[in-house]
Amino acid sequence: xxxxxxxxxxxxxxxxxxxxxxxxxxxxxxxxxxxxxxxxxxxxxxxxxxxxxxxxxxxxxxxxxxxxxxxxxxxxxxxxxxxxxxxxxxxxxxxxxxxxxxxxxxxxxxxxxxxxxxxxxxxxxxxxxxxxxxxxxxxxxxxxxxxxxxxxxxxxxxxxxxxxxxxxxxxxxxxxxxxxxxxxxxxxxxxxxxxxxxxxxxxxxxxxxxxxxxxxxxxxxxxxxxxxxxxxxxxxxxxxxxxxxxxxxxxxxxxxxxxxxxxxxxxxxxxxxxxxxxxxxxxxxxxxxxxxxxxxxxxxxxxxxxxxxxxxxxxxxxxxxxxxxxxxxxxxxxxxx
Length: 337
What we know:
This protein is of the alpha/beta class. The protein is 39% helix and 16% strand. The protein has helices at 12-23, 40-51, 66-76, 97-117, 152-171, 193-203, 222-233, 270-281, 305-311, 319-333; strands at residues 3-7, 27-32, 56-60, 80-83, 122-128, 175-180, 183-184, 207-210, 216-217, 220-221, 257-262, 268-269, 287-290. The protein has a seven-stranded parallel sheet with strand order 3-2-1-4-5-6-11, sandwiched between helices. A two-stranded parallel sheet has the order 7-10. A two-stranded parallel sheet has the order 8-13. α3 packs parallel to α4, α4 runs parallel beside α5 (152-171) and α8 crosses α10. The radius of gyration is 19 Å and the shape is globular.
């Protein structure tokens, strides 16, 4: 049992993680600013699910509020922090770049300062597969250089990794970064493809299919993501005794710092993903085929060897199983027969 701060607790991953932590007996302080980037009602409905547990304490707060974050850390005395709060979305970063700096950079600095001054045993933070940017060597490895982001969102996630390493080095705060690969499942984000496609197909509207459907994504089911987060959270980051500045390994360090991919290790073409959704819905989609969007990458594919070696886990939920569960949840949540 531990007292854990989960930021972004009303978000997709934060909600599912909070639920699992409460089930195993941990005490969770769930921070969220409940912004309106997507339907706040979905966020409130998620929170309602976990708020019934006496071990959950909701806190409405913005990561960028420096004084309030300082007070929160001083008052609550966390043992572990899992930072999932962020301004999400590659495409939105082209429209509103300042929100990404406020949440993902300034907000993350407040998290790091809170950990520095309050004896946090382990900081686990969400990075993203988007950091691989212009890389084309597949599968994407945490040991490869990632210095060519193609969106500001990706750049802020790379910045988080660098900032965390700095604090691990200077202040010996154990930090673990997790690069998530295209997360989907029940209670998912309404701005993500699966949600948008499902709604449009049910309502008989065409769906926008970018890169003419030739996009490949390493779709990763939410339960696999949460299992990976918990296993990594329980394995506190430690220095790599073999790390060398002459041949620096970006995934480990002389400091207590580690990076992992959490992905299904199985890229799926977008068109096949849509076909599975059509089967689950029993209805064909009308497709509006479009070129790739600015900031998008054509393919993602996670190498998860370190995750398997260090915590004995590999995501394995098939898209057939995962999409089926999402569709069942969607029909129940929106009361669609």
